[in-house]
Batch of 4 targets.
Target 1
Amino acid sequence: MLYLKIIAIPCFVLLDNAVRAAMVHNDLDVCPEHLPYINFSESDHNESHCWGYESNCDKRYRYSDPICPGSETGGMQTRKDQIDMFFNQGDFGYIKHQREEISYICEPSSREDSSLECTNHLRFCRGHNIMINFTDIKNSNRSIRYHMDVLNFGQIGGKCKFHKEKLDTQCDHLSPLQSWSPELRFFSSINYYPGKCDIIITEPTVIMKIDAINMYHHFCDFLNLYASQHVNASGTKMFSKNIHILIWETFDYESAFGETFQAFTVHPIWNLNTFKGKVVCFNNIILPLLSRMIYGLYYNTPLIEGCTHSGLFRAFSEHVLHRLNIYQEPKSNGKIKITFLSRNTKYRNVINENELLSILKNNTEYEVRKVVYSEEFLTFKEQLQITYNSDIFIGMHGAGLTHLLFLPKWAVLFELYNCEDIHCYKDLARLKGVKYMTWQDINKLSMHDKMHYLDQGAHAKFTNYSFDKNEFLALVEEAVVHVKKHKHSYSSKIHDEL
């Protein structure tokens, strides 16, 4: 039997709070602003910082509150109801509900026993001393991705009191990326643990079923991974990078955004072939929230109108930027930094792109940069560094606009044209808390090279565009007004924190 284990060296507990916080920060490598929230204890009612999901969290002290400006109430009777709805749909209130739902599917009788706990519909689960039998994968030549028959009965289980009827009831969202029903429906109770395990994994292991490869969908995976760390635990170990990531497919993990995993683990990424032909026991296993859950986070989120600024999305952004060492560059000339995302694709190109850029460059207050975000030209970290130092980010509808997650707080996302997909990046910008703009007057844009989709006419996403230069300039100037109004106050706060 092979044990995979990292031996941790214990450290002395220091009484001085400042020193202790510094040690935790160095160990966890977390954003300094997050430290008081990570150190929050649910047993200590004197703390003045909490994320917002803890049972004794006072609303006055939670990480952030949604902002619901204007007169629109989203159908709610009061502003408070509107704020609470947004908080529960796309903020730490969602985490709170998931944590409250956790219950045993398989219950331990002793500390040495196995356990399996899940939320409703098996959206999130965590297990202790869980066996998974991967022997069938060795005998199969098929490639596995989004398959629901990777396991069979008895190939996943634990030594615990199994509530089978409860499991069967919860297996109602049977779809690859909606829940863990496809895998856990085969769970069974075993008589011995670890029994005949070939390998025992002692570090926590997160099993992921990842979405599509483009940035928009893959960052749904990363956001839900981060959210799952909040659902799973609290305290100084919740963001430990001494965890393993096992992707539930046989393909080697390759992604233009793979550097993002450095924010979560120090270990290589595993896949199903890592353990093919083996029976593996996991001391601690996490089955995180998935990308396409019904009424999930980020994707399929039924977001109430009129509100912005999810603390969860802000914390995710800050967490990733900190761990990837992306930083705010010192002010050099005081100019408004405008980043224009150019597409290197067949459709949704801007035909008069150079004309629009030339107009912007004529203004000496602007520092204009045209970029193509492709791993052929820039690493993902290099892309993030540019994005995080942009005041205005301009681009056509497309997955690259997911970079809005890493814009500074005062920035503006100008989706040049939404191609009739109105809510995609508008809602994501609302969750992140950055101002969103898009083209309004369709009479001042032109479509080129229209691709006709079956018999339904031209599709807005499968064509190229040109834009009226005067209207474009007016919209950019509107964005500049917003940046100038908000940048100084946010920049001062960042300087003070540094």
Target 2
Amino acid sequence: MHAIGRTVADYIHVISSRYSFWNTSFGADHFMLSCHDWGPHTTSYVPHLFNNSIRVLCNANTSEGFNPQKDVSLAEINLKTGDITGLTGGPSPSRRSTLAFFAGGLHGAIRNELMQQWKGKDQDVLVYEKLPPGKSYESMLKNSKFCLCPSGYEVASPRVVESIYAECVAVLISDGYVPPFSDVLNWNAFSVKVDVKDIPNIKKILMSISQSQYLRMHRRVKQVQRHFMNNGSPKRFDLFHMIVHSIWLRRLNIRVQD
């Protein structure tokens, strides 16, 4: 057993032997939270934790056992300082000159395919492994209509929330990814889902979206933005409350006998 798996197993053993609550439901009315890539894997060392408990995970990959009925997809956010000042907002749709944008490391089959198809090949779909000198990542997000969010080695990416902050319509390119808060948010209303096999057709797909449809999506991105805000002191409907609400919804489905 891996050292981290052993730590998790030992922890569950301690709380289950000291307290009666875990054993009453075999962990079904308990939750754990992890945004690390290893989070889903470490839970597999404890069957009750993996199969019964509510797992709040950034890497919400159905191919790795993520169960939307009992698990919670956690929005991944990369904040260098913990402050979102300057990251939110952006120009109006009419002032966004780039159709689609992505910049990020080359890891995972999906990103490899995206780079092969689009890196340096189109003036409307700008795909970079590394931004050219003088270009700002945040300004590129804010000047793009659509922001490409391909999975890397793991399905989750902070680019989804970065796009929402920049009021850029996120384009989700993944296999098996369950977007955060899908039980209450209609992602089809404010994002675009592109199958991996359709990566060569990204420009065609995005160009087929009418101006009126894009404006509706952009407006809805602004509306849902508050649900992804990370505040020092939680505010109503922000990220903290959305996570707690998602956990609460799943707890409602659990009946624990006295």
Target 3
Amino acid sequence: MMQLKLQLQTLKKGNSSMSDYLMKKESLIDAWMYSGSVVFEDDKVGCILGGLGLEYDALVIPITSMPGCYSLPEINALLLTHEPRIDQHHSSES
């Protein structure tokens, strides 16, 4: 179980697509839950948001400032829709 927690804490989005990143995180969270641990929604959200880069701060800051206001599916949807905006911004800088 300690290994799963370590993987959850250290897995970063990096250059992965948001959908790949979320799938990896959710897989690790599922394994953590299946190990018999109680995993709270806030823990899941923290694991996902903790691996994001600074370009996601526009979403991370409001989500973490208002705990419980967003469900995990809502957060995932926000992250998935924010990714193309980041990509567009990066391509316009090139």
Target 4
Amino acid sequence: MPITFAIALRFLFRSAKTRQIGVFTVVSVLGIAASVFVFLLIDTIINGLTSHLQASLIGFEAPLFVPTDTEGVRPTDQALARFSKEHSEFNLTYYCNKQFDGLIQRPAQSAMGVKVKTAGQEFFDIKQEQVSVYWFDGFSQQGFVGSDNQVLLGESLYESLQFIPGDDEVVSITHPFADIGPTGEMEPSQRDFVLAGIFSTGRLAFDESFALVSPSGLAQLSDDDFLEKEYYIFPRQWESLAQIQTLWQQGRGAQLGVMKTWFDRNSNLFKAMKLEQLMYFVIFIFVFLISCFNMAALISIFGTSKSKETAILSALGLRLKQARLIFIQIGFVLGALGTLVGVGSALLLTVIAQKSGFRLPEAYGFTELPLAINVITLTGLLLGTPLFTALIACVPAYRLIHRDITQVMREN
């Protein structure tokens, strides 16, 4: 093996000096490198996007949900307490999330849509790692939870309201359908809230749409009957979501509400992302196969140009299997070189993008480009690509070696 590998390298580098073979060599390596680079980069973006969506969406929402109404809050709370005690191995925490779609405005400004969400002590205890909060001077988490007139605005929502230094940081929040009037019509409810700070989830869809108020502040705006309510449930490990869901549906909790996972609610999104990943994989296969065919042509040229040397080596005792192995190893070297160049370029670009803090336009819905390298994909490319190119090289290698030595010597 070392002898044939040394001969393969000698053939490769000496032949690459000629113009024709040198061009074929560069094209083969760059073709493999480009296909590996593009596929790994796209896979890194899709994997990062998936991870970011899970972190931001679950971070602002929950892994498990049980919808309820005003009459079902107490029974659902009791059922969850009983379920959590019976299945203590899941270490469940939960709280009732309440929210409504309303309007927000500054004095002398037009109103804009907002989603108002309750944020009590449970919210901050559970979300402290997923939601970043910047408190203004004189305000704190403890004061916010105990107050009924303070509000936290999403970072982008705060910018949209265009606060000017020196202005009173007060906003009016309106619930359009907060009560029923004497004649049966729906009546709005409006209250002023003092801005206590801003929060960031890393996803514009949340940061530009949501405002957080304490449970007592939400109660001042609307009766529970006019709020959307569901229980947010957080297990210790996400891997147990399906098991928890099954146990809930088999028990008495199913009578109160169907438990859904975050992945159930966002299944279409992940199906679309999987389909996109598959599409890019098919494109990668086509580009890679074209590069492999080019490499096979290159090995055929190698074999033709080195037929005399191969014949001499065969006459000196080089076995047929060893002679064939020379050209197979040339394919392996080209595949490995192209893979290393492609993987190295993709990793370098990923590191640069992460270090530079590249920010995306608002239309993309993310503050930064999400990138996460999939170790399985990376390992598969590093191991599989050179082996596949070596396999492709078997075809021209087999045809080149099965030639009559006397005829080869006569031709040369």
